[in-house]
């Protein structure tokens, strides 16, 4: 199986936040953001594996700033770690004021997916190639998170 670069599966999606996405304060519901995070992360994982990928865990989800209705949410997902059948995806979320083009970082998440074959059985995925120092650093940090996940599982 041929290894893949981080850039090979990176995905960015954008969605305008509408009134139906908001809570009583006019901020976007955390659940709406969680769904979008899982969606873009799952796309990146499936692109890497070239197979369906299902969510195993949302390891970390940090809400830094609220997002208002009328803002464009831009979500970027990239793989940070690959095991035998599982993959960690970092999702970086920004809110953009479409009238000023100002963007702010609002959320970050680490989501773990597992690739499945046609019978729903976990299947091996390609190794991940880190091309830059930043990608190597992210991969080392992801190794530590994976070790913590395994420790918690015990």
Relevant CATH superfamily? Hotdog Thioesterase
Q: Low-confidence spans: pLDDT under 50, at least 5 residues?
A: none
Give helix and strand order, one letter per element, not per position: EEHEEEEEH
How many helix segments?
Answer: 2
Major sheet characteristics: 5 strands, antiparallel
Helix share, percent: 25-40%
CATH-derived architecture:
Roll
Structural class: alpha+beta
**Cα end-to-end separation:** 31 Å
Strand order, biggest sheet? Answer: 2-4-5-6-3
Tell me the Rg in angstroms.
16 Å
Counted up, domains total 1
Strand proportion: 35-45%
Assign the CATH topology: Thiol Ester Dehydrase, Chain A
What is the quaternary state of this protein?
A: single chain
Mean pLDDT: 95
Q: What's the level 1 CATH class?
A: Alpha Beta
Describe the structure.
27% of the residues lie in helices and 36% in strands. The strands form two sheets. A five-stranded antiparallel β-sheet has the order 2-4-5-6-3. The protein has a two-stranded parallel ribbon with strand order 1-7. It has one domain: Roll (Thiol Ester Dehydrase, Chain A), CATH 3.10.129.10. With 154 residues, it is of the alpha+beta class. The protein is globular, with a radius of gyration of 16 Å. It has two helices and seven strands, in the order E-E-H-E-E-E-E-E-H. The model has no long low-confidence stretch (mean pLDDT 95).
């Amino acid at each position: 199986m041929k290894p893949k670069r981080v850039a090979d599966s990176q995905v960015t999606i954008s969605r305008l936040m509408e009134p139906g996405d908001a809570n009583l304060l006019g901020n976007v519901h955390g659940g709406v953001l969680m769904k979008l995070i899982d969606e873009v992360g799952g796309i990146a994982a499936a692109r890497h594996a070239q197979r369906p990928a299902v969510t195993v865990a949302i390891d970390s989800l940090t809400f830094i700033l609220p997002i208002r209705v009328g803002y464009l949410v831009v979500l970027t997902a990239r793989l940070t770690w690959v095991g035998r059948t599982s993959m960690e995806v970092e999702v970086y979320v920004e809110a953009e004021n479409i009238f000023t083009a100002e963007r702010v970082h609002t959320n970050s998440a680490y989501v773990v997916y597992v690739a499945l074959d046609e019978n729903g059985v976990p299947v091996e995925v390609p190794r991940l190639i880190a091309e830059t120092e930043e990608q190597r650093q992210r991969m080392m940090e992801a190794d530590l998170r994976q070790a913590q996940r395994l420790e918690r599982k015990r």
